[in-house]
Amino acid sequence: MLTVRMDRLAPGRAARALDLGCGRGRHVHALYTEGLDVVGLDLAFDDVGAARDGLGGFADREPAGAWAGWTVGDALALPFQDGAFDVVVCSEVLEHIPDYRAAIREIARVSAPGARLAITVPRAFPEWLCWRLTDNYPHTPGGHIRIFDERELRADAEQEGFLYRSKSFAHGLHSPYWWLQCADWGNKDESKLVAAYRRFLEWDILERPALTRTLARLADPLMGKSVALYFTRARPA
Predict the structure, then answer these.
(1) Of 17, 73, 3, 67, residue with least CA distance to 41
(2) 19 has which bridge partners?
(3) Distance between CA atoms of 101 and 116, rounded to whole angstroms?
(4) Would you call 181 exposed, middle or buried from its count of C-beta atoms within 10 A (0-12, 13-18, 19+)?
(5) What are the angstrom distances between the C-alpha of 160 and each of 111, 149, 207, 229?
(6) C-alpha distances in angstroms, 165 versus 7, 123, 158, 191?
(7) Nearest to 24 by CA among 100, 94, 91
């Protein structure tokens, strides 16, 4: 269930990649199977361990020569040298960080000239509706602390020397799941409607039938839960 489109990164094999805030590893695994040398970094030790263990499920698609590494670290103080990476993915991370601009500065520091960057955050309207449906959603520990204006986020990245290229939307079929939870927040864990929609999403992810793929393509631009912005690190003049 990727939020970033690998074809928008077009990294080429043997590139050095960082998945900043890798969680349980979905983008690390995708970058690895594309043939990149990739590092997955997250603040949560357990998530890094799960991402590492999950890589074993891709043994049948293991690319020749690529490797994956793992580390626990802070987005505001990345433990890497300047210009260390040709590709950086930062997916569904910045909405959790109070000083997110400092994280973008660190991304810029570790990005090589010409590096490709993908930043994804929750899209403004679906996120706003979650906040309107319940006060609990933005106050969940470790949850989202802001709603991004994608134009402002684009300007923040451009200020750090990234050139904007394109954007995409993802997870249009997932927005109703979050709206259902927020509408019945106190009962969401017992709600039959929430459970039924979750089963539908799990079935869709596993089976990927043509009908729901078509529905997703239609829903993503209209109500995609996430927006992905793609940049290139400017080269010195």
Answers:
(1) 73
(2) 40, 89
(3) 18
(4) buried
(5) 11, 17, 41, 15
(6) 13, 18, 11, 42
(7) 91
The H-assigned helical ranges of the chain are: 6-9, 26-33, 45-54, 100-110, 124-133, 150-159, 175-183, 192-207, 210-223
User: Along the 237 residues of the chain, how does pLDDT read in single tens digits?
Assistant: 899 999 998 766 568 999 999 999 999 999 998 888 999 999 999 999 999 999 888 767 777 667 889 999 999 999 999 999 999 999 999 999 999 999 999 999 999 999 999 999 999 999 999 999 999 998 888 889 999 999 999 999 999 999 999 999 999 999 999 999 999 999 999 999 999 999 999 999 999 999 999 999 999 999 999 999 999 999 887
User: How distant is the alpha carbon of residue 166 from its chain centre?
Assistant: 16
What is each CA distance from 156 to 17, 34, 87, 113, 123, in whole angstroms?
22, 29, 18, 18, 16
Confirm whether pTM is higher than 0.90: yes
Cβ contact 82:115 at 8 Å: no
Work out the number of other CB atoms within 10 angstroms of the CB of residue 57: 10
Backbone φ, ψ for residue 111 (5° rounding): -90, 130
CB 179 within 8 A of CB 129: yes
Residue pair 189/88 in contact (Cβ under 8 Å)? The answer is no
